[in-house]
Specification:
The protein is α+β, with helices and mostly antiparallel strands. It folds into two domains: about 90 residues, Arc Repressor Mutant, subunit A (Orthogonal Bundle), CATH 1.10.10; about 80 residues, 2-Layer Sandwich (Alpha-Beta Plaits). The protein contains six helices and eight strands. It has a four-stranded antiparallel beta sheet with strand order 4-5-3-6. A two-stranded antiparallel sheet has the order 1-2. Helix 2 crosses helix 3. The N terminus and C terminus are likely disordered.
């Protein structure tokens, strides 16, 4: 489970802090994960869902999503494809690429003149390098990207992904400001 956000106002509500601590490491792998969290916190499933929705709405949590462990699913090849897209077209092309089933992530980044000309990035996972390259060629053809310069950067190492850590166990009981960090091992 990945979460990104601002925790300044979490300090004011102990149950919100405990809720964030409970979900920041991932939802329990049970049929009703919100009910399991509610039981742990001594509240209702409806209240857990309501509070999470409110935290998202007010921006204390900006994103609440799944971190997929691709290798465990048999996807051993990972490639970041970087594109040199005309700045006037980058949003449109990014949305088009991001809708393709083989793309798991697509985002825009600023160019670094003289050092890095690419401004659009997308991640493609596959069971093999050949599979990734086949998916990329199909994407290029389907989206009409034949004239857009790009490079394929395959991963050499695997990094463990996890969401941001907002609240430590101690902070869930003590009214002190929470620290946000992203742990990469």
């Amino acid at each position: 489970m990945g979460m990104i956000g601002n925790t300044e106002s979490l300090v004011s509500d102990p149950l919100d802090r405990e809720l964030v601590q409970a979900v920041q490491g991932g939802l329990p792998l049970v049929v009703n994960p919100y009910a399991a969290i509610a039981e742990q916190l001594g509240t209702s499933e409806t209240e857990v869902i309501r509070r999470l929705e409110r935290l998202l709405e007010i921006g204390d949590i900006r994103r609440f999503g799944v971190v997929v462990r691709h290798r465990e699913l048999g996807y051993r090849a990972n490639a970041m494809v970087v594109w040199d897209v005309n700045d006037k077209r980058v949003s449109k092309i990014g949305r088009l690429i991001g809708r393709q089933s083989c793309v798991t992530l697509c985002y825009r980044r600023p160019r670094r003149p003289g050092r890095w000309r690419y401004n659009l990035f997308c991640m493609i996972h596959g069971r093999s390098r050949e599979g990734v390259l086949n998916n990329l060629q199909a994407l290029i053809k389907k989206c009409g990207l034949e004239t857009i310069e790009h490079e394929v950067l395959f991963s050499r190492r695997r990094f463990k992904q996890c969401g941001a850590r907002y609240v430590t166990e101690k902070e869930s009981r003590d009214p002190v400001p929470c620290q946000t960090s992203l742990t990469v091992e």
